[in-house]
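Reply to dn_fold:

You asked what the input looked like. This is it:
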Amino acid sequence: MTADFWAFEKGAIAKGYARIAGVDEAGRGPLAGPVISAAVILPPAFDTAGVNDSKQLTALQRERIYSRIYADAEAIGIGIVDAFEIDRINILQASLLSMVMAVENLRPRPEYLLIDGIYTISAEFPQQAIPKGDARSVSVAAASIVAKVTRDRLMQRYHEEYPEFGFDCHKGYATQVHRDAIACHGPCAIHRRSFRGVCEYLPCNGPTDGAPDV
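and this is what came back:
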């Protein structure tokens, strides 16, 4: 975590912007399920205690901070791109699209965007891409937590529909248990058919350019 977790927000405020949204995604790597992004505008007095990159927190810690973010945030937007669209446009473009959708769902509208990673997005607002932003900006960290918890909850619901895959445990990531389930049962409707670990069990020639070897 950066020494000043508000440094990027303060920089935007110094440029004359008031509503700064942090934007991050969850679910680029899994073999199944959507990629989900969140955009979060925090009030200046937001208590940052415990807030960090979602990957550095336990599930219980994320749930607790998620509740606090929803209670205190000025605005939260969610963007979801499903497995079909991921296969159609590739995972990078799907991730960026989910970020655009999350920003579009913010009310009130943001004035400036802080985006995790090295890419900006197709949005009308001034913006800054921040490598490892979820560990450097409180707004981006909050977005990472909201995106992760939202996706985990959705994968829990998918587990009820497809219990044979164990989505409640691995959330669609390429664990050995998940790989074995795909080999045994074949892919289900929410599997990413362009990804290694899934495509091998379909009548296709191999993964597309957008499919990471996860």
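The beta strands are 20-26, 35-41, 75-81, 112-116, 127-130.
Hope that clears it up.
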